[in-house]
Design brief:
By secondary structure, this protein is α+β, with helices and mostly antiparallel strands. The protein is built from eleven helices and nine strands. The longest helix has 25 residues. 41% of the residues are buried.
Length: 323
């Protein structure tokens, strides 16, 4: 083989090796961790998202939950944001269009700062949507067009199935249907603050209030809690918050799953370690690759009182703890 031929073979070999390394790293093949990202599954359809897309989808869903809107509203909003921005909070678009929904300040949607705030943008979208009479029964394409007045109205249908799957998970109608792979972070230990939470745990508490409004909370107290939880609980370190959905019934369980999925969607940003609800657990780090798992509370026996089982299995509250 000529010198040139050997050089070509060497270049091809290097390219193949490099390509293989890229595939192994980015696809999580073999012993390497899976890449970070999220999935929503419903009715046999699975949607893959980046963590940024998942966070934006969770905000859209949480605002609808806070406003008491139906899951159909979430489907319409998410399908619209998929079409307009691919669920990315972008700072550019056609003419002066900006943000998740590509809302135009010149058309009265708000200032550039407002429409690039996902919370404001979602509220503005829903403000317009609820003015559309009968939107709950409309095709997603039709309802989205009534709000957006897009030049390409049929394009919304391209994302209808994805929107339905995400909405079904994010609105709590599909249990444990939304999950993320989140790599571990090296977080330094924190001291308990004035209300009994570490700074990271208190950030979660404030974030939940911003998205969902004031919800009944527990599991922490000024100076820290010293009893009432299993041995080794993160509550004793001020790293955990419980959010209650009582009494245990179908509607409160659905509402609890909205929050549980929201917390998983934002686990990377908020440095969340575990989310437990309705006898299921999600964990950050390597275990996040397994998604939601059955939760087996230690020491629980079959003859425990019903009220005790509900507490230990986290049927009546969402538990969240941070690193």
């Amino acid at each position: 083989m000529s010198r040139v031929g050997r050089a070509v073979v060497a270049i091809v070999a290097v390219a193949l090796v490099a390509g293989g390394v890229y595939f192994v790293v980015h696809e999580g093949v073999g012993p390497l961790p899976d890449p970070e990202g999220c999935t929503a599954s419903a009715a046999g359809h699975t949607v893959a998202m980046s963590t940024a897309q998942a966070e934006n989808a969770s905000i859209i869903a949480s605002i609808a939950q806070r406003r008491g809107l139906p899951a159909r509203a979430i489907s319409i909003a998410i399908a619209t944001a998929y079409q307009e921005s691919e669920l990315e909070n972008i700072d550019h678009g056609d003419r002066d269009s900006l943000g998740l929904f590509q809302q135009r300040p010149s058309q009265g949607w708000g200032t550039p700062e407002q429409v690039t705030d996902p919370y404001y943008a979602a509220n503005a979208f829903y403000d317009a949507l609820v003015q559309v009479e009968g939107y709950e029964e409309m095709e997603i394409t039709e309802a989205a067009q009534e709000v957006q007045r897009s030049a390409f109205p049929d394009a919304y249908a391209d994302h209808e199935q994805d929107g339905r799957a995400i909405a079904s998970a994010m609105s709590g109608y599909s249990d444990a249907a939304f999950s993320c792979v989140v790599h571990p972070v090296d977080s330094a230990a924190e001291e308990i603050g004035g209300i009994g939470l570490t700074p990271r745990a208190d950030t979660v508490r404030r974030d939940v209030a911003r998205s969902f409004g004031e919800l009944p909370l527990g599991g922490f107290a000024p100076g820290g809690v010293r009893d009432g939880h299993m041995e080794g609980s993160a509550h004793y370190d001020g790293r955990a918050v419980d959010v209650f959905f009582r009494p245990v019934n179908a509607d409160n369980t659905r509402r609890g799953w909205v929050l549980a999925h929201y917390l998983v969607a934002n686990a990377d940003r908020l440095e969340i370690d575990h989310v437990i609800f309705d006898d299921r657990i999600w964990s950050g780090g390597p275990l996040s690759e397994n998604g939601w798992r059955d939760y087996d509370p230690p020491g629980l026996t079959g003859d425990e009182r019903r009220e005790t089982r509900q507490v230990l299995e986290h049927r009546d509250h969402v538990h969240v703890d941070v690193a």
